[in-house]
Automatic annotation (TrEMBL):
The keyword Glycoprotein does not apply. GO terms for biological process: organic phosphonate catabolic process; peptide transport. The lineage of its organism: Bacteria, Pseudomonadati, Pseudomonadota, Betaproteobacteria, Burkholderiales. This is Putative phosphonate transport system ATP-binding protein. It comes from Paraburkholderia aspalathi. InterPro entries: AAA+_ATPase, ABC_transporter-like_ATP-bd, ABC_transporter-like_CS, Oligopep_ABC_C, P-loop_NTPase, PhnK. Signal peptide: none annotated.
Amino acid sequence: MKSLLTARGLTTRYGDRIGCEEVNLDLYSGEVLCIVGESGSGKSTLLNTLALRVPSSSGTLHYSNAKGDALDLLTMSEPQRRLLMRTEWGFVEQNPRDGLRMTVSAGANIGEPLMSTGDRHYGKIREKSIDWMQRVELDVRRIDDRPTSFSGGMQQRLQIARNLVTKPRLVLMDEPTAGLDVSVQARLLDLLRTLTAQLGLACVIVTHDIGVARLLAHRLMVMQNGRVVETGLTDQVLDDPQHPYTQLLVSSVLPT
């Protein structure tokens, strides 16, 4: 099977400091990959490098688009990157306020991506917005309310709807459950697990929470000091960790 996203030797440096180094990655359609590690391990740098938000220093990164073309992501122009993000990719921010337009309604937040991909019929856009509010368990009566009046968990579900309404092939998520109460986090995790399975999404999720990784991920990538120290099937890595750092992480000895 041909991989959707492929990285080889991917390295990002900030001056003399290494963000991530010599990362090899293969992500397949319908697969959820979680990148875990403590703060400063390089997981967020890797995610932002994959999303083309941070320029890489060396290595290769390729993506197989919907037409079957192999795109060299590291040579893409900014307009090409923005087009890819509008049509085939999504990015869920850790803070939903960074991924939403807080000055427009919930319905407009979901509807705008549809307009950017060519939808122009107001009635159909509103219908799709209502449908996605229902999918992410938001009260459709609040479709005209602004996100500023929503709780943090509701804002995160709205951001997820905004990202998934165009049916992307790949979604990258940065700590999507961070800062949420345990009960809210549990509901959001159930939602993510259901949606990724239903839509056949490929996802790369950064998290420091082993419980999140166990619930959502097919495969796990463990990072320490910018390097991948262990990777494999989630249950395999968590139930029988081989690297000392992974063993400490799983036993919760390391701070998160």
